[in-house]
Batch of 2 targets.
Target 1
Amino acid sequence: MKKSFLAGLAALLMPAFGLAGEYNLTVDRVQIDTGDFVKEGIGYNGESPGPVLRFKQGEEVTINVTNNLDEMTSIHWHGLILPYQQDGVPGISFPGIQAGETFTYRFPIQQAGTYWFHSHSGFQEPDGAYGAIAIEPEGREPFRYDREYVVQLTDKHPHSGDRIMRNLKMMPDYYNRQQQTVGEFFSDASEHGFMNTLKDRMAWGDMRMMKADVEDLQGFTALINGKGPDQNWTGIFEPGERIRLRFINSSAMTYFDIRIPGLNMTVVQADGNNVQPVNVDEFRIGVAETYDVIVRPRDEQAYTIFAESMGRSGFARATLAPEEGMEGVVPELREPARLTMADMAGMHGMDHSAMESKEQSDMAGMDHSSMAGMDHSGMLMSGNGASDPFYAEGSGIVPMAANGGKFLSYADLRAQNPLYEDREPTREIELKLTGNMERYTWSINGVKYEDADPIRLQYGERVRFKFVNETMMTHPMHLHGMWSILDVGADQWNPIKHTISVQPGTTVYMETEVDEPGQWAFHCHLSYHAAAGMFRKVIVEGGPDSTQAKTDAVAGNGGEA
Amino acid sequence: MNAAKFLVVATSMSMSAAAFGAGAHSGGHGGGSGEPGKASEVSRTINVEMHDNYYEPESIEVNPGETVRFVVVNKGNLVHEFNIGTPDMHEAHQEEMMMMVEHGVIQGGTLNHDMMEMDMGDGHSMKHDDPNSVLLEPGKSKEIVWKFSEQGNIEFACNVPGHYQAGMYGDVNFN
Amino acid sequence: MSRVRFMTLGLLSSLLLPTTVTAQEMMEDTTARKQALTTWGVQFEEFEYRYSDDDEELGVWNADIFYGTDELRFRWLTKGEYEIEEQAYESLENQLVAQTPISKFFDAKAGVRFDTPEGPDRTYAVLGLTGLAPQWFEVDASLYVSDEGDTSAEFDAEYELLLTNHLILSAALDATVAFSEDREIGLGKGLSSTETGLRLSYDLIDRAFSPYVGVVHERKYGDTADLAEAEGGSTEDWFAVVGARIAF
């Protein structure tokens, strides 16, 4: 460590050990007013979002959670490294918190950065049970700011989580109001020709896939810190100050593209871990991810924080201003994105599925004929021209900055300080992200959680996970309890995350140092995908005390045990 | 909700805030930050440590016209720069540094020295040999002798992309 | 290089020994998450008033109520035509079927059907196939064997054309073929009847309530038509319809 530096700051910083803090949270039924509608939901300490929990690295926290609901609840500390019994997943970490009970969480805060917490029971999280965590580091931050704000996004829907799940199961396109219409057919036909458009529609119709299938859930009001676009959450600044914005996406289903017109953003942290600073104009935040950015508004004016949903069906809006009540210009929503055949590329993999027989071969046949045919015409196939190595080549959902500037890619992320020594993984586990939009079933390797065996890892090994997205949706995969080291090809500088978005038709690798014993949840963080079965239990066998542990690392033969 | 919670991270915030206020109209006027100094005129030595991504110290005091020897050491894991200039000069230099990153001259913790020698056409190279700055790999150390101008809004800064914006700069305060 | 790999080399012999954290110490997931997700829904594809070209007035519904998991769903399919003036059910049909996926887009179903209109009743065994055909045609084919021993088949297809994302034109075709005659209920052998409908709906409240107007054409063929004529009934009707699609 930087001893000289620490010594220099000794007067400013409390000693790291010996710190202890006690916190109280109640889980309550609350009213959530989005400005568009008022809805009963679930919150903490009487409000949704709940309070911002401010911890200090090195602190031993005691958190008393009192369940005032008439049903079971739980709190999961998203991204925190802690003993598995404290992780808050009913049925995996602990039995849950029964109605009327108080459960006391106790764990040491081993890390710093921006995180969040949420219920891991039923659909309490989409119903409002979430809050933010900001952890001050033991040493100084590798960046400077004069003030900071949590900017926590969510996609509050007028329907309850249970109802949404049921509606999606009844009609998977229940909430999709951006489907292709007759009008779009004719506008496409005038642009690309009638036959090309017809061929395009036929190809998609043959697959029974929708180009418009970017967002399962529309009709929400996007909130920032609990405030709808009209309620306009406002953060105050003095011109010239540096502001740290802790963006947290606590949405059930919605990815956001975030920009602050007039301001450059410097991304300094992703998922709580410092990254080498990247200057961007806009970035996409996946469900459950966090990004910390530094902005420096120099002018005495209001700046709009504008977060468009990835499918462009809604937006969150907030304001940074020198004083309360000021408003910046609120941009228009951009045109909704359309998937392309490139985003469907992963679907070939479905041939493995036992259920597929004739239909599959039909589909494969189609892929090769009409798809290729359309490539030549170069029309509706192409994406928007942008490219990003973490999207399929020619994908229709590659984000572009509204001002034509820099849009953050996973490929830009580099760890500020590698957390682990870089080493060869002990083995690779392939996880195919699978599903069937028409049935609204979601699974891993074609198997839903209810039918799946746990993934068994050995303490001390370093596992390389290979995510192959065979669906047309983006899946934010979240491994509890251990870090997900995203492979961006930067070896020891690969960024350390807790949630990794896997875009349709792509393969993404992450590595995990298996350094926490116990059992953990591992799932897609889209609430209704997880509930539909895109979920696994991970068991870490062995432990630091086990002479066995490191030995067993070699025992696995890949795949799910 | 929890409104703004002011969090002081470093000691020199109020001073840097003052510097921002004056930042807009600096630059331009003759000499800006000063000029390369003569070793014989050095009045004192200031040690500057570069960390990821900040300086230690984060502000220095100089007398108008003083010649100072800076011993700059990179104690971080990343390549860093120590560059004396006005905010405008830094901003202009950041574009050059961006190019160096895009061309692979700066790669996280290493410098590609071969690339630095390359002629970029139109008389430019990516040598990074300006007298007001040093660019150092981790563990490396270098000296600069600098004669400060009489007055001005001067910062020392790291213009590796993102570093300045993240707060890797220090203030030069004139006595 | 890798410390782990180095250490493992010498200790291969102990590979199969138990580890410190055993399965017994860790809990089993018995929460709802580990159970198959059960869900339910109610959909009235048709819930309408029909007015025919010879002044016949009908109240008509066609609904699907389901409960179950991805693997097994129980469905109650109910449809009826109520003659308003005569206060009698021209047709009344209830099916109870169990349904399970057999391919990516298709389910097989089996169950019973009870027809209890004005006039003779029938009970059928049902075997069917339902799902989504290429180009977004929702299709349903059923084979019926009645308690009288007669067999028949019914084929349904529906297509939705999105004029906008709320204004939807849907076309439905329903055809019945009998493989043997059942005079008592006026069913002749061969293609017996078709019902074709065109409805323009507007999603007023989500997809829960979508009022529509439309036209329906009913036609009887062959022996079935002859039987109807002998009874003094019509063999071809045009209806103007107004109603709503309902889902909850």
Note: Chain C touches chain A through 54 residues (CB under 8 Å).
Target 2
Amino acid sequence: MAKMTMIEAIQSAHDTAMERDERVVVYGEDVGFFGGVFRCTAGLQEKYGPTRCFDTPISESGIVGTAIGMAAYGLKPCVEIQFSDYVYPAYDQIVSEAARLRHRCAGDFTCPLVIRMPVGGGIFGGQTHSQSPEAVFTHVCGLKTVMPSNPYDAKGLLAAAIEDPDPVIFMEPKRLYNGPFDGHHENPVVPWRDHDLGEVPEGYFSLPLGRAEIRRPGEQVTILAYGTMVYVAQAAAEEAGIDAEIIDLRTLLPLDMETIKASVVKTGRCVIVHEATRTSGFGAELATLVQEECFYSLEAPIQRVTGWDTPYPHAQEWDYFPSPARVGRALQQSMEA
Amino acid sequence: MSEFPPLTFNVPAPELRPGDTPDFSGVEIPRAGSARRPPVDVDPKEIRDLAFTIIRVLSRDGEPTGDWAVELPDDELVEGLRHMMRLRAFDARMLMAQRQGKTSFYMQHLGEEAIACAFQKALYKGDMNFPTYRQAGLLIAQDYPMKLMMCQIYSNAEDPNHGRQLPIMYSSKEYGFFSISGNLSTQYPQAVGWAMASAISNDTRIAAGWVGDGSTAESDYHAAMVFASTYKPPVILNVVNNQWAISTFQGIAKGESGTFAARGHGFGIPSLRVDGNDYLAVLAVARWAAERARRNLGPTLIEYVTYRAGGHSTSDDPSAYRPKEEGDAWPLGDPILRMKGYLIRKGIWSEERHTQAEAEIADEVLAAQKEAEAIGTLSSGNAPSARDMFEDVFEEMPPHLIKQRQEAGY
């Protein structure tokens, strides 16, 4: 085991995958010589050569389009979109091509492909470096969507994503790259080396997609969260003095409904937290599923705490970012209902 | 106040609309044999002229002439003609089947048969095409079973795509024919990526991307050109300029100057413009490009100048936007008639043999159609099961889909 940041864990997942399987190729904007603007591919070009880790033109549809061709050929491309905010030019390739290839030709061709992208705010990135577009991928049939919240999960889930026979959208909460963040931006940054989940095996391991993890067992209310919001939820529960059970979804699709159901049936209350905009967000899907599966166990209306339905602001970042205080109020409302 | 006059807005329009008399006398058609054949490792800047001319082999008299004239054994010449005839006969039967309500939709190749049929002969087993919806000739030229194509068109129980795709959206990895999407130009960067993968893997196989004149306007086309120019993978980038994108003439995608081939030069990619109705010219140019790819010299762009003599699809009526007689007046002629004329002059074919071949091919197509229809048509109710539609979304069916399948009653 070694202490790793999320960046180092992601780099290590690439490294072990490339070492184990020569079909794995890694590319994207600034990914090669420089090792990525966040350093997630640092050293890979030097170690594996420029034919397996290289820079690309600034063309997301080109990056994903070529990766689909490579996957159809039989390689296992793992490509980086520099910020999830830039993924939209590739959306047609992802939705109409990668996601449907296996189905439309009944498995004649398949598309084992990972598309990584940093997501989320809290870094003063403004509207073009802060978005959380998970719902535009979970809505698409044929894609798996993953969002780890710590270095250990990031490495294990990325290994599984690269091995997966189908396309995986791998979202990395960039505010967590260097340490957990609970929304208290006024406090100093906590580094991963001081956190249990910064302990990561140096060698190969993988974690199955589609399994949630209970981060904090509790009895009074279930909080469904993923990415940065896992830590915001933890802070909120502690500050509100509420015995919440916090579920880190880790994989949004396929969703671990069993873990969610068992928890909500136990607590009878559910608060959903995500950073993305609210309307038609992934929280809407979660709320519906909880209602469908746990209606007779619910003792309070399901609450959603999310980013507002506005573009991600720059100067007003902390008014937008779901704070522990907002989550705490939702927990109180849920308890009082 | 500006010192300049008010601006005006330019919207290109075709010269002819319904009711006009087609007149291509002003269109300059270079003489067959007039274009030189450069070495395959030529510097692209030395062949800019070949992106503006039209490389032609078969003269008006039906004689192969010039540097690009390919020496083909007689049996391969006859086979080429028969492939084009088979594609045309196949189209005729399937158009009729669509009119009879046996399927929902069809797209024919009328007038464009030479392009895919000849191109395929430049490829080896293992190479991969990324076709559009109008390259069934790639399959026909490999003797892919017509019955299977028809099963796909009928979405019946033996459709290799399990009834999931529109008619003619074939897929065959074995025959080097990538699954057709129906979205436009998405396959172009995929072809480049497949070729990149082949080079990364130190393989010897090459890829070919296909796109129509209209779809070159898609951003994916340009992304593919950028990646092809950057990594120089073994890919042939084909642009089939059949003059019409549904009702939109090629000047809307291209503007009123230059050629589609000329655009390759902006990317430093050697680019050729060829007579798409000339089987021998298509084959010669395809071989040149394939040799470049195989010698690791990188991509080649080829524009095929042709004419879509039929409608865009069975949902299209071209008489609403272009003169009915335009196809007959098209100066590059009919690819089958041109090849037939050459073979007759060469003494290896005759009117009688042609008529006989037409009858044989009609029988083959009809026999395949009977076999396919015995399995089922879209209207006969022998479609793949609805249970099957939940398969292949993922390799392993996740819980939510299992649940939905149960909800659907399967």
Note: The longest helix of chain A spans residues 6-20.
